[in-house]
Design brief:
The protein has about 325 residues and is an alpha/beta fold. It has 2 domains: about 5-90 and about 250-280, ATPase, nucleotide binding domain (Nucleotidyltransferase, domain 5); about 100-240, ATPase, nucleotide binding domain (Nucleotidyltransferase, domain 5, 2-Layer Sandwich). Helices cover about 35% and strands about 25% of the residues. The chain is built from 9 helices and 13 strands. The chain has helices at about 40-55, 70-75, 85-95, 135-145, 150-155, 170-180, 185-205, 225-235, 250-265; strands at about 5-10, 15-20, 25-35, 60-65, 80, 100-105, 110-115, 120-125, 215-220, 240, 280-285, 295-300, 305-310. A 5-stranded mixed sheet has the order 3-2-1-4-5. Strands 8-7-6-9-10 form a 5-stranded mixed sheet. A 3-stranded antiparallel sheet has the order 11-12-13, covered by helices on one side. Strand 4 (about 60-65), helix 2 and strand 5 (about 80) form a beta-alpha-beta unit. Helix 3 packs across helix 9, helix 6 packs antiparallel against helix 7 (about 185-205) and helix 7 crosses helix 8 (about 225-235). The longest helix is centred in the middle third of the chain and has 19 residues, at about 185-205. The chain is globular.
């Protein structure tokens, strides 16, 4: 029997992250790719690349999936743990930083805060209404200013006189930024002001009413921005920890949860990397069976339905997830 690796997959709206982790919970390989509006094709390509990177003598011992597209990922490859992002990110933080008490997570389309107490998730909040002030907004501003997003943090730290950017609404913030540019403010000061506005917005909305205690861990793709990390440190009056694998912590958490699930069940539901060669496509329709009018989503492999979800009563269920850890 070969050495076991655990596969973690985070299918998000902006990026897809795939990691492998060994029995000692040490990350072996990670892949971070943009979704580009094509989650099936991009996930298949990421899994093909990961399959090619598996060392000789190793085998996949379990698979965990998280993210907004977790059911899609589970339908493609099979999974032992299908968990929401709160559980996955909290699990990863507690595994690699056991005394963490607060997780700040900002991704491409959402942001969340997770409170950890006594080794478990005790509370959380997400920006459920508006996707403003997330990675996508920063990407858009970087493109508008013709600056690589990777340079944002570096430029923010060079600011000597940051301007105040309206932070309540992203539309007003963009107008305010343009106004500051027309006034002759430097790019460094505008970007620093943008970082501070993002932090104000996060703390006043996602973090409102939450007891933010150290150690504070910053996860998600936006954690690469040193300017935002610095702004959080100044606003909270404490140091902020950015984990080594900050960008794939959700996928790592899913892999850890898969390892636990397999330990309980004794075997994996992983279909094998060869399964991704199928021609998958999605289709949605509305159920007319009752006043709920549920919107169903189904995954097809050729003419075969491999998974279907979205109904409240279970009438249309195909590809049962009951033999895996709960998706909640």
């Amino acid at each position: 029997m070969g050495k076991k690796l655990y596969l973690g997959i985070d299918v998000g709206s902006v990026s897809i992250n795939v990691v492998t982790m060994d029995e000692g919970l040490v990350p072996v390989e990670k892949i971070y790719v943009r979704t580009e509006g094509k989650p099936i094709q991009i996930l298949k390509k990421a899994l093909e690349d990961m399959a090619a990177s598996i060392p000789a003598g190793c085998e996949i011992g379990g698979v965990g999936i998280t993210g907004s597209g977790r059911e899609l990922g589970a339908a493609l490859v099979g999974a032992d743990a299908v968990k929401n992002e709160i559980t996955a990110h909290g699990t990863a933080a507690l595994t690699y930083i056991p005394d963490a008490r607060t997780v700040l997570e900002i991704g491409g389309q959402d942001s969340k805060i997770i409170l950890l107490r006594n080794g478990v998730v005790s509370d959380f909040a997400m920006n459920t209404v508006c996707a403003a002030w997330t990675g996508s907004f920063l990407d858009r501003q970087a493109a508008r200013m013709n600056i690589p997003i990777e340079k944002f943090g570096e430029l923010a730290l060079k600011s000597t006189s940051p301007v105040r950017i309206a932070g309540r609404c992203a539309v007003f913030a963009e107008s305010d930024m343009i106004h500051k540019q027309q006034m002759g403010c430097s790019q460094e000061d505008i970007i620093r002001g943008l970082c501070e506005a993002l932090v104000r917005n996060y703390l006043n909305n996602v973090g409102k009413g939450k007891e933010i205690l150290p150690k504070v861990v910053f996860q998600g793709g936006v954690a690469a921005n040193r300017g935002i990390q610095k702004a959080f440190e100044e606003a909270l009056g404490t140091s902020i920890i950015v984990p080594e694998h900050y960008d794939v912590m959700g996928a790592l958490g899913a892999a850890i949860l898969a390892r636990r699930a397999v330990a309980r069940s004794g075997g994996t539901q992983f279909k094998g990397f060869h399964a991704i060669r199928d021609d998958f496509r999605t289709k949605s329709f509305d159920c007319q069976g009752c006043p709920n009018m549920c919107e169903l989503v189904q995954i097809m492999a050729g003419h075969r339905v491999v998974a279907r979800w979205g109904d409240r009563c279970g009438k249309w269920a195909v590809g049962s997830f009951s033999n895996r850890s709960s998706a909640n």
